[in-house]
């Protein structure tokens, strides 16, 4: 009874989709510990000597190259903490001197389930308006910046932390897309935005005629903020009414931050959130992340080259 039961079980196991000898050998390899090589080879009508020759054969050159490429792709993907899709992984490998097709990289990533984190579209919080003066969009008539500290952009976004919202303000250099200052706080106010701008002025020390573009939020229209900008001889530009795309570079950064960092992780405390944002901006976004608009260079690298 035991022998016939084992035979019936072996027949059930030996139902496989492959039609060739190689597929049969793979099936034997998979089930060899459970049923034994001799029984499986006899049942599948394949040669035992042929199986052992197949099992000890070195992988083909193409298989070895594919395995090596997989390791390199996975390393780049893991180094980006899953933030890179196939175009950026491809560009990173090219920078390392590897000659490989972009479609091949995409195929390897697809086969092994490596997908970039999805960036979520978010709703901006409605900001209070008052009668403080709104300014024109001077960017529409300005030339594209040719070096650092010619044009900056600043904005504030909200981040959900537990049951409340906190706020992140940034200042971005429009030439290199580098985040030159940032601040995380629990309250949205003119003082909050002004402190972020003050840090940017301290760290970059721009000359006069700097153009700063922001949205029309009260924190940027406030008298104290305007006084700070006048002190540094800054020409202040603002979005047109209802045109959030006028500040597209900062909006793009916020979308990237939320998609690559905040969407994938839950934070409990401000200290924890601040630590991760600092690591993302200073340890990845400015220094390692390849930007397609900069020719797949990092912001700091782009500033150094140019």
Coarse shape: elongated
Under CATH, the topology of the largest domain is which?
Answer: Nucleotidyltransferase, domain 5
Please provide the count of β strands: 5
- Sheet bearing the most strands, described? 5 strands, mixed
CATH homology superfamily name of the largest domain: Ribonuclease H-like superfamily/Ribonuclease H
Strand fraction band?
5-15%
Explain what the structure shows.
With 306 residues, this protein is of the alpha/beta class. It has three domains: 2-56, no CATH class; 61-111; 138-305, 2-Layer Sandwich (Nucleotidyltransferase, domain 5). The chain contains 13 helices and five strands. It has a five-stranded mixed beta sheet with strand order 3-2-1-4-5, sandwiched between helices.
Tag the structure with descriptive keywords.
single chain, alpha/beta, Nucleotidyltransferase, domain 5, 5-stranded mixed sheet, 49% helix, elongated, RNaseH_sf
């Amino acid at each position: 009874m035991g022998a016939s039961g084992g035979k019936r079980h072996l027949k059930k196991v030996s139902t496989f989709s492959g039609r060739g000898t190689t597929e049969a050998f793979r099936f034997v390899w998979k089930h060899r510990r459970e049923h034994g090589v001799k029984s499986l080879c006899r049942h599948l009508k394949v040669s035992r000597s042929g199986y052992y020759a197949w099992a000890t054969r070195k992988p083909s050159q193409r298989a070895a190259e594919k395995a090596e490429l997989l390791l390199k792709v996975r390393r780049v993907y893991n180094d980006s903490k899953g933030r890179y899709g196939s175009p950026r992984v491809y560009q990173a490998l090219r920078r390392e001197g590897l000659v490989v097709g972009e479609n091949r990289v995409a195929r390897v990533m697809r086969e092994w389930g490596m997908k970039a984190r999805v960036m979520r579209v978010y709703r901006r919080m409605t900001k209070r308006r008052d009668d403080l003066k709104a300014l024109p969009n001077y960017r529409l008539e300005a030339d594209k910046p040719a070096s650092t500290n010619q044009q900056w952009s600043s904005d504030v976004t909200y981040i959900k932390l537990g049951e409340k919202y906190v706020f992140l303000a940034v200042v971005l250099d429009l030439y290199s897309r580098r985040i030159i200052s940032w601040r995380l706080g629990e309250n949205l106010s003119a003082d909050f935005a002004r402190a972020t701008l003050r840090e940017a002025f301290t760290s970059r020390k721009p000359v006069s005629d700097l153009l700063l573009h922001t949205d029309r939020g009260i924190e940027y229209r406030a008298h104290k903020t305007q006084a700070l900008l006048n002190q540094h001889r800054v020409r202040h530009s603002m979005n047109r009414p209802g045109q959030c795309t006028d500040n597209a570079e900062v909006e793009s950064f916020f979308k990237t931050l939320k998609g690559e960092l905040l969407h994938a992780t839950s934070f409990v405390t401000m200290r924890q959130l601040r630590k991760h944002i600092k690591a993302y901006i200073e340890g990845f976004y400015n220094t390692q992340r390849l930007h397609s608009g900069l020719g797949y260079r990092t912001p700091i690298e782009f500033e150094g080259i140019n």
